[in-house]
Design brief:
Number of strands: 0
Structural class: mainly alpha
Helix content: over 70%
Shape: globular
Radius of gyration: 23 Å
Order of helices and strands: HHHHHHHHHHHHHHHHHHH
Distance between the termini: 6 Å
């Protein structure tokens, strides 16, 4: 079913009468689609009920992503079963395959499948069996079930509610109201303080995504109490990343998000681009000065220098030192197979072999290089990275066609994904992987002027 529920942008960067008209038509089509959903449910019998159960399973999976890994997998497995049993599977698949996010995910899935075949032929490695590869089919699964923007908004809201609950618990831990996790009380687990269900990077990235969605909806014209609530969520999320959890990956993303938020705030006032740039520069200087004046922030920056010095002088596997070593060892891998790389999942065995015999080598052994783009270059080569970059550009162009606040929300999500990948391999991690692919799968459906809605 082709549906959309995008409202006209209340604070557009530039007036666009055609975009506003398209958004109005999209809203009308969404209302019509929701009415058709109800009619189908009444006439579809038990198979229609299964379809509705599958929709709720997807919503539950988004709620569980920031909370529990097994629950997320169970909800997605149930959603798959419901999608297979629900009415008109071929029609729903055709509709899903017409959506840009689904096509992009399947293209990247094909690239990784070819990379896995390359690894099997060249190195005799086994074909991957986990969700590292098959998670890229989730957007198609979501498209066959969440066939209206009403359901996609419900799924995103479920994710935001779960992350908000984690945010409040984290602040409760910091204030001594809620006890810390047992792991955080150990000296070796000090970085886990104020984390609830996930580790600090996973929780920090989730908080930034929550701040992104809250800020995007804050820009809409809404009652004052709603805008104040959204502003509070943004402040609590950003302050948690800045002061309460020790996630440098999230901190880098936070700085870029703050720059984007500042740019959008000036756009909401419809200032000329020259004034917006001046305002953005002033915000960067002001925020940078405030952050540098805080002892905690200054200590984090100086810690990077100390860790690099310890690594250089004594081969200590500090967080910074370990990354420098992994990145240094990755460069020869890229140079030895620059075009197509070494194949999927080949970085780990090659890196472990390269580290054998080095001082304190066991402390430097990791499963991924903590840099998404070096990882792609090592395993899929320059061809893989170019395809990945092209898909990101196409995704940004698709998001740019959305109305507000959806355009700001998913642009911010992409900013978080790309910036966090500078110091971490998000696709390797279950929580990060499922968070981003499921949220991307919930991008609102755009109304096509040529497409006729189908049940």
């Amino acid at each position: 079913m082709q549906a959309a529920g995008v409202k006209a942008e209340p604070f557009p960067p530039a007036p666009d009468r055609q975009a506003a008209s398209s958004a109005w038509e999209a809203s009308a089509q969404a209302a019509s689609a929701d009415q058709r959903d109800a009619n189908i449910m009444r006439s579809g019998g038990w198979r229609g009920a299964i379809h509705d159960a599958g929709r709720w399973a997807v919503v539950v999976s988004l709620f569980c992503v920031p909370l529990n890994k097994p629950a997320t997998s169970i909800a997605l497995a149930f959603a798959l079963l419901c999608s297979l049993l629900a009415p008109d599977l071929p029609g729903r698949l055709r509709t899903g395959l017409s959506q840009p996010v689904v096509r992009g995910a399947l293209i990247w899935m094909g690239v990784l499948a070819l990379s896995a075949l390359h690894a099997k032929l060249a190195h005799g490695s086994q074909f991957p069996s986990g969700s590292t590869l098959f998670a890229l089919a989730y957007p198609l699964l979501v498209a066959t079930l969440l066939d209206s923007n009403r359901w996609r908004r419900r799924a995103v809201l479920a994710f935001c509610i779960a992350v908000t609950a984690v945010l409040l618990i984290s602040w409760g831990q910091a204030m001594g109201i809620v006890p810390q996790r047992d792991l955080a009380l150990l000296e070796s687990g000090a970085r886990m303080r104020n984390t609830v269900f996930k580790e600090y990077n996973q929780q920090g990235v989730a908080f930034l995504i929550l701040a992104s969605f809250a800020f995007s909806w804050f820009l809409r014209r809404a009652p004052l109490r709603i805008r104040l609530s959204l502003a509070l969520i943004v402040l609590l999320s950003c302050a948690n990343v800045l002061f309460l959890i020790d996630s440098r990956t999230a901190l880098v993303s936070l700085l870029l998000l703050m720059a984007y938020f500042s740019w959008r705030l000036t756009g909401a006032r419809q200032l000329p681009d020259s004034r917006r740039l001046v305002f953005l520069g002033a915000c960067v200087v002001l925020i940078g000065s405030i952050l540098w004046s805080l002892p905690m922030t200054r200590e984090r920056v100086l810690a990077l220098q100390r860790e690099a010095q310890l690594y250089d002088a004594q081969s200590v596997a500090t967080p910074t030192g370990a990354r420098l070593e992994m990145w240094r060892q990755t460069l020869p891998m890229i140079a030895s197979a620059p075009v197509f790389g070494h194949g999927l999942n080949q970085w780990r065995p090659m890196y472990h072999r390269a580290m054998q015999g080095k001082p304190n080598h066991e402390a430097f052994l990791f499963d991924h290089p903590h840099q998404e783009y070096l990882w792609i270059l090592a395993e899929e080569g320059a061809v893989g990275l170019l395809i990945f970059a092209g898909l990101i550009v196409l995704l940004l162009r698709h998001v740019a066609r959305l109305g507000s606040p959806e355009r700001d929300a998913w642009t911010s999500l992409i900013i978080v994904f790309l910036s966090a990948g500078l110091s971490h391999c998000l696709w390797f991690d279950f929580a990060h992987r499922h968070t981003f692919i499921l949220l991307l799968a919930c991008i609102p459906i755009l109304a096509s002027p040529r497409a006729q809605p189908s049940h």
